[in-house]
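Forgive a beginner's question, but would it be possible to get a protein, spelled out as residues, together with the matching structure tokens, please?
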Amino acid sequence: AMFSSWSRWRAGWIDDNEILCIDGSKVGSYYIGNLEDPLSRVKAVVVPRSDHSVIVVDVRHGTDPTKPLAFAYSVDTSKETGNGPYRQKNTFYTEEEFSTDGITIRLLDRDSSGVVIEVGPTP
């Protein structure tokens, strides 16, 4: 099974310093390495949206190794794990943008090692 970066972090398999937490109130660009690569320094970007919800973006192997897939999903920490705290939001197959919960995430670039995303407030 493919564990998300969030569940790996909760389990202690990913260190706090491998998760980049941003507030999303201003536009910024961020590099995220492939979750499967132990050398990746940043394994997820997390954007808090309320006291108990975040948007997470992480990167995993796709069918084409030169184009890993970026996944955006929300986690509601007020729900127990069995009650479906995860909600898949978007999979970035191409350079595209996606808006949810007041933020816009844009895929700027990717190569075999990871992706560059831009995150900012939805206009």
User: Anything to note?
Assistant: The two ends are 37 Å apart (CA to CA). The first strand starts at residue 19 and ends at 21.
